[in-house]
Design a protein that fits this description.
heterodimer; A: 178 residues; mainly alpha; Rna Polymerase Sigma Factor, Chain: A; Arc Repressor Mutant, subunit A; 2 domains; B: 461 residues; mainly beta; Immunoglobulin-like; eight-stranded antiparallel sheet; 13% helix; globular
Chain lengths: 178, 461
């Protein structure tokens, strides 16, 4: 979609045009899926998160104050949904149930992946967006509505925690929670 | 392994590629889009919200005690009071009236008890708990009635906490709706949450975060995703993050007053509904203005028979009796009646101001007098320099709109963060360094003219 068409559709969607809103969602569905896939394990969960995000965005779009931020705003809603589903699954699922699809393509470092999943929020989301989705801290700051300085500090803390866990894991002193 | 090796290890992890979206996910997206409701109903509400949002009034004055905020379009509250079941229609009208009266009394007394318990933080705190840096935060109730939000918390620590206060952000449906303490820069549009806490011991604190002015339409939804992100407790940085789905609570009691219409030469004030919840008091009204003076801003102030002041909200005018909504703090449990006082602020295009340096902290017996001019003055009775705030208290200036600013002479203007109403009135500014030399500036903005012809008094059960 051209930039002009995108801007026009955002304006239309903000003023209540359902079809324009649908075109915007279709245009960014690949990005939405990749973002969800970075934060969740299975496609079913991804579909749930995207569905909820679409519905919430549609319901809230009349109050989107700055249409230029539609994309960022949509990602923010999706991340929020992903985190909610992640928390819910963590509470509900027996921990020995494996995800129905492995984490990012090509990823073979299972220790690292497990360690990242052990991080608390918002560190986990930050690490996944930065390292798996390859987003810059500036992009993440915009999406998560926090300053880059805060993200740097969180990333530093996350790295320190990961190093600590991975060192322990390499020495075989502790097993991850199952 | 060190951090550099960790970075290398991450570089070896495959990134998500521009792969196609799985059919099942794509289908779900299409199904979701196809099932989106028509916009008709939603648009009317949204349009109204925007129209009202554009008319934000941001005046802060004392004396008359008006804080003008944008009052967003109302979500019409449920027509049936939650606690009040309708008595059987087979009853005679006298008995029916008596039964209704007793049920109203029961409902309001229950509400009074709840508010009383909330204010002394007697409610149980048994929700989710998060620990970081040896500080354990537990969440109690989260009450959202669509206009106000109140969050109960309890904190215990392994070691005494220095300079207890919280820095936190509060999000609803992924959007930041307010801050506590100095968590982020405030852009003037987001509600500042109050943090009222009790110190049980050096390692235990019981508190409530609350806001009455809640400038976010999403809060009116039946369900909202609530997130509390605490980044600092006392002098300890950390992360205590809570995430919960919160159902909107309908008001505990709705008092109808549908035929209460008052007229004066300034306009017609029609009060259609008063709703009382645990966290706010709402007025549904229509105001048709006759007065065409451009420098007048109309407002409504709420007080009660005990003298408790709930603050003031700018009135919105409507040409065709369209109802507007004004939100105030929750009912003072001791109140037996409410007084709704419309007024206008006769705004002066050029204001006069005076200033006075704070050489010593004023007291009620030895106040600081700030001369303003034209025989007007502000009498400051206290300046409280706390770690988390600076509170300036002054005597009322009935009938005059006086703005108060606080300056740190060497560092500049101190931002205003809150206005206290009710029993504890005052202007709350950000904390100032202990060595700061302070100056108070008082500015006369015009007269506050109450309109007794438009007043409505409401006796509570």
């Amino acid at each position: 979609m051209s930039e002009l068409a995108w801007k026009t559709d955002v304006q239309l969607a903000c003023s209540g045009d359902r079809e324009a809103f649908s075109r915007l969602v279709r245009d960014m569905q690949g990005e939405l899926y990749r973002m969800a896939r970075t934060l969740l394990h299975g496609d079913e969960d991804c579909a749930d998160a995207i569905q909820e995000a679409i519905m919430k965005a549609y319901r809230s779009i009349p109050k989107l104050r700055e249409p230029a931020y539609f994309r960022t705003w949509m990602f923010r809603i999706l991340i929020h949904e992903c985190r909610r589903i992640y928390h819910k699954n963590k509470r509900m699922l027996p921990m020995d149930v494996l995800p129905d699809r492995e984490a990012p393509t090509g990823e073979t470092d299972l220790d690292l992946r497990d360690a990242v999943n052990r991080l608390d929020e918002p560190l986990r989301t930050l690490v996944k967006l930065h390292y798996y989705a390859d987003l810059s801290l500036a992009q993440i700051a915009e999406i998560m509505d926090v300053s880059e300085g805060t993200l740097k500090s969180r990333l530093h803390r996350a790295r320190r925690q990961l190093v600590k866990w991975l060192n322990v894991s390499e020495r075989g002193e502790i097993g991850y929670e199952c | 392994m060190n951090v550099e090796e960790l970075e290398t290890r991450f570089q070896g992890v495959g990134k998500w590629e521009e792969s196609s979206i799985p059919t099942a996910v794509a289908q779900r997206i299409e199904q979701t889009l196809a099932a989106l409701p028509e916009r008709g109903k939603q648009r009317s509400m949204a349009g109204r919200t925007r129209a009202l949002a554009a008319a934000v009034v941001a005046l802060v004055v004392v004396g008359g005690g008006i804080a003008g905020y944008s009052a967003y379009a109302p979500k019409i509250l449920g027509e049936t009071p939650i606690k009040q079941a309708a008595p059987s229609s087979e009853l005679s009208s006298d008995v029916r009236t008596e039964v209704e009266g007793k049920m109203s009394l029961l409902a309001i007394n229950e509400l009074r008890d709840s508010i009383r318990k909330m204010s002394v933080k007697e409610t149980e705190v048994s929700g989710a708990a998060v620990s970081d840096q040896g500080i354990h935060v537990r969440l109690g109730y989260v009450i959202n009635d669509g206009y106000a939000l109140s969050v109960r918390y309890s904190i215990t620590a392994d070691r005494p906490i220095q300079d207890f206060n919280l820095n936190a952000a509060i999000r609803v449906d992924g959007q930041t709706v307010g801050y506590v303490g100095n968590a982020e820069e405030d852009d003037g549009k987001r509600a500042i949450f109050r943090n009222e806490f009790s110190i049980v011991s050096a390692t235990q604190y019981e508190g409530i975060l609350s806001t009455t002015y809640y400038p976010f339409e999403g809060a009116r939804m039946q369900y909202t995703d609530f997130e509390l992100d605490i980044s600092r407790i006392g002098n300890v940085n950390g992360e205590w993050v809570f995430d919960a789905e919160v159902r909107r609570q309908e008001p505990s009691l709705i008092i109808r007053n549908s035929n209460e219409t008052k007229t004066s030469k300034q306009g017609v004030f029609e009060l259609s509904k008063i709703s009382l919840s645990k966290v706010s008091t709402g007025l549904e009204y229509a105001f048709k203005r006759f007065d065409s003076e451009k420098n007048r801003i109309f407002a409504v102030e709420l007080t009660d028979d005990t003298g408790y002041r709930y603050g003031g909200v700018a009135l919105r005018t409507s040409e065709n009796s369209e109802m507007n909504y004004a939100s105030f703090p929750s009912l003072n449990p001791e109140a037996k009646s409410l007084l709704i006082r419309p007024l206008y602020w006769d705004m002066k295009s050029t204001s006069i101001k005076g200033r006075a340096n704070v050489e010593s902290l004023p007291t009620p017996d030895d106040p600081l007098i700030v001369p303003i001019g034209q025989d007007k003055e502000l009498v400051v009775t206290a300046i409280e320099r706390r770690p988390d705030r600076t509170v300036v208290r002054s005597l009322p200036t009935p009938g005059d709109s006086i703005g108060i600013s606080l300056y740190d002479i060497e560092r500049g203007k101190v931002p205003l963060i809150d206005i206290l109403f009710g029993k504890e009135s005052g202007m709350v500014f950000e904390p100032v360094p202990s060595d700061a030399k302070l100056q108070i500036v008082a500015e006369f903005h015009g007269k506050l003219v109450y309109l007794p012809e438009l007043e409505v008094q409401l006796n509570l059960p």
